[in-house]
Amino acid sequence: MAMPPAAREPERITRRICEAIKDQIALGLLGPGSRLPSTRSLAAEWGVSRTTVTAAYEQLIAEGYLETRQGTRAQVAQGLGQSPPQPGQPAPPASPGRLSAFGQRLAGFPLPPVAGTQRLVADFRYGDLAAADFPMPAWRKAVTGALLRRQPRLRYGDPCGLPGLRAAMQGYLWRARGLRCEPEQIIVVNGSQQGLDLCARLLLDPGDRAVMEDPGYNLARQVFLAAGAEVVPVAVDREGMRTEGLPAARLAYATPSHQFPLGGVMSAGRRRELLAWAQRCGAHVVEDDYDSEYRFDIAPIPPLQAMDEAGRVIYLGTISKTLSPTLRLGYLVVPPPLAAAFARAKRLTDRHAPLLEQEALADLIESGAYERHVRRVRRRNGERRAALLAALSARLGDAVTVVGADAGLHVVAWLNGVPRAREEAFINRAHAAGLGLYPVTPLYAPAAATLRPDAAGLVMGYASLEESAIRRGVGILGEVLEAFAAEEALTRIAAPPAARTARPRAPAPHASRWRRSAPPPER
């Protein structure tokens, strides 16, 4: 039976008295040893019975805020309170306390900027997908089916992932990528980022070396640095990471099927060199196959893991590029000797990935809906890609050099008339004109000796845009580029002769130029 409101009123007043006294202690108005008013006087002040005040004092004594001795009034317990601030004196800033070495390494990493509210004509942010491409009916059906299969109890699941999803993923990886593995080797993770974090924690000690491509995925670099590793940048070219003369290390990170961001494909010879290096050094290779579903002008590239006979490759995949990055589902395929260690680490991190989403994804794969969706979205993004390349060629011509267009959901566009030093200024000007553009510079390791073009570079994603928006965006890009080039020319004319420099261009070895007379074919 519920307690009547009149009976609950003394309890509410008792709680209010307790909170008021706690606040005075926290502010320093009542310091350690300060005596509190008698129950009679405080009851008169609050207009309540002494029984209510006595109940409040007893509660505070039980919580350790007050102490009492026979024959004396209650007083504030020792060790509580603080010195009250002086009038007009600002409160001291809160201190974060001492961070661990891991926390101190993280302190220097920038947080991503909050997305602005400004509506852009075209936002070429890479990693975004079009919401209209999400297979809503199929996903709703899969989620509803998972909800209707009611379990007798709610409980934690296998840290490695639902057995049904891992079995479905095993079949999918064989059909889509020619990758042979057992379900026990598959670890379902919260996106590829968690997969990278688990690899760093389990394979790297502070001071160990990790080699990775330069330019490369910046969050992978930060994960390894946070683990205390020394990250050694390795230059890339049209054949991916340059594997000759790699230094001894504990781990290598690579995107061999579609180098991020420049788009090169690692040649068979370099793949063999990388695997031989890993076996020689006792190292592991993290193969990030982040967008393997998208191949346009080239045949699917078998994963590095398919060539691995010594158990040195950890395969990393994600559904962020096919379904949605908001679902936070990815997977690792680890060599059998590492499976138990990854399972324990995953359990300590977050027990397991969300079970409802896992069950829905398993249904999507088993029913064939996932692969039908992949084929549809591959065709749709092929159309967007063709529109972007045709627009860049027609509007900008030789003013831009495009690389990495054979696969994936982005291209890199080198702006031949914009010096690298002016990259940020150009991007800011484009943003003011309604474009979301993103520089390639942050993807290079700081202070690395890697040879890179003198031109400004843009990483241009297209998977979230309609063709009409792509064409409008490229049109505005051309206008901004022309105005920028005109101002740069005036600046060079006004500068002393010694300060004038030739127009920067991207080097030929990286180039994959699309000419105005020959737009790229669709696959």
Automatic annotation (TrEMBL):
Pfam families: Aminotran_1_2, GntR. In the C-terminal section; belongs to the class-I pyridoxal-phosphate-dependent aminotransferase family. Residues 495-511 have a biased composition (Low complexity). InterPro entries: Aminotransferase_I/II_large, HTH_trans_reg/aminotransferase, PyrdxlP-dep_Trfase, PyrdxlP-dep_Trfase_major, Tscrpt_reg_HTH_GntR, WH-like_DNA-bd_sf, WH_DNA-bd_sf. The lineage of its organism: Bacteria, Pseudomonadati, Pseudomonadota, Alphaproteobacteria, Acetobacterales. SUPFAM superfamilies: PLP-dependent transferases (SSF53383), Winged helix' DNA-binding domain (SSF46785). This is Transcriptional regulator, GntR family. PANTHER family: HTH-TYPE TRANSCRIPTIONAL REGULATORY PROTEIN GABR. It comes from Belnapia rosea. PROSITE patterns: HTH_GNTR. Residues 11-79 form the HTH gntR-type domain. Residues 72-99, 495-523 are annotated as: Disordered. GO terms for molecular function: DNA binding; DNA-binding transcription factor activity; pyridoxal phosphate binding. Keywords: DNA-binding, Pyridoxal phosphate, Transcription, Transcription regulation. Residues 84-95 have a biased composition (Pro residues).
